[in-house]
Design goal:
alpha+beta; 2 helices; 2 strands; elongated
């Protein structure tokens, strides 16, 4: 990690996964940044659509 690097958490929208950010994450990482692209709970292909928004938000990894 370089002193000028930033950390990005890119969160997908409804009916998507973290994979939607592959190209953007690649560019940011190429510029020396740290990038996280989590897939929210209940958004993997085949997951039942029974979770609430609060469940999805609670599934985000918290890093400090």
């Amino acid at each position: 990690m370089t002193p000028a690097s930033l950390t990005f958490v890119l969160v997908h929208g409804a009916f998507m996964t973290g994979d939607m950010w592959k190209q953007t994450a690649s560019v940011l990482r190429g510029d020396g940044h740290i990038v996280h692209t989590p897939t929210l709970a209940g958004h993997d292909p085949g997951d039942p659509m029974t979770l609430a928004h609060t469940d999805a938000v609670a599934s985000l990894p918290i890093t400090r």
